[in-house]
Amino acid sequence: MIADQKIGKSFMGALAYNLKKLNHKDSSKRAELLETNFASLDFELIKKEIEVIRRKRPSLGNYVYHTSLNFLHEETDKLDNTKLLSIAGDYLQRMGFTDNQYMIFRHYDAEHPHIHLLVNRITFDGKVVSDSNNYKRSEALLRKLEKVHELKTVQQSKFVAVQASTQNVKVFPTGSKFRRSPKKDEIEMVVRTGQASNKMLVQEKLSLILNQPKRSMQDFIQHCEAEGIDLLFNQATTGYVSGITFFYKDFKAKGQALGGRFKWMEIEKKLDYEQNRDRKIVSEANGRTKARYGDHTPAGNGNPGNGRRNDITTPVPDAEKLIELSQSDSANNEKAGYDNAKDGETGINGNKTSGLPETASANTVSDYSIGADWHDTGNGIQISDDEDDALKRRKKRSNGR
Asked: pLDDT of 357-379, one tens digit each?
């Protein structure tokens, strides 16, 4: 599923675009109005209703939220109007639109199924739904909705969704600079077997150990070894340490391979470490690791892989804890005000919210950037321009004359 979001100033312009689709000259391509809370479809009456709400926030310019939700052509048969309304209701509610004027249209002028959501950001009581990090929040939400509504996942997203239980979907950021995301086969293994890969286990164990600030080097090494993690430091004859490698069962990975926060230069910041004082402790830890793993200890040997074992019996770590840990070093931005709805409450279309968990918060990924052009997705999906964009182009052409 792909969302093409636009925030603008012309509700009536965007409405005219959708009403025009309702009256398409080709009857097979005529759009449908699936749901609205406006009293009438008369253009002038809608305009009056909009103006009543706009007077509550006269200084707000970009008050229009116009988004299309686009689906793969191969999923057409499963997407009847009831299903699309359920998806639209979940999407709008989780984006914060729970008390707003809205319209939901289904368009038929493209090869793929798609719906348009036209919403007034100003609520009936005069509040404004935040647009902070709306692209990032939308992408995380789409991955959840794909799981909840059994749709195919869009691989280009920087978020992946994992079915933590029958009624609980969790989203993992896949672009975090602090923690390497699970690979596709790891995610599939978790979903299929309920068992975590060794890589994920090492990430969680190290995160818990490093959450305790200013451990001594001795204490850090002892806690790692107690958790079954052996350490190999890249130590020069002078005692200087320039890197670290972790060993766990048949899994081996350098710190960078686990994520930025597991590199030695980041770990060192969290420890009470002094090169001359601790060089012997480091050397002794290297000796134990080499004795245990032998020829697998030199860099480049061993089994880097993805840390999977066919005989692993360790249960999957708590999914919510994994997500919290993956975010632990992200910027602690103020949470955007969009999670007004609670699970199980009546949705914007009168449906329940399917027990969806809360949408990923604004600080899920610190290096996230969604400036991508979704018009070419590799899935054969072409997203039509909204009227606002077309008007802008005509104005530019007119000004150039």
From this structure: 333 333 333 222 222 222 233 33
Q: Among 395, 397, 396, 374, which residue's Cα sits nearest to residue 385? A: 374
Domain boundary among 293, 318, 343: 318
What is the per-residue pLDDT across 91-123, written as a single tens digit (0 to 9) for each?
Answer: 999 999 999 999 999 999 888 899 999 999 999
Q: Which of 345, 356, 352 is nearest to 86 (CA)?
A: 352
Query: What mean pLDDT comes out for the span 387-391?
Result: 45
Whether 172 is in a domain gets the answer: no
How would you list the strands of the sheet with 251-254, edge to edge? 230-235, 241-248, 251-254
Same domain (yes/no): 9, 149:
yes
Q: How many domains is the chain partitioned into structurally? A: 2
Q: Pairing mode, if any, of strands 159-165 and 215-216?
A: unpaired
| 326 CB burial (10 A radius; 0-12, 13-18, 19+) | buried
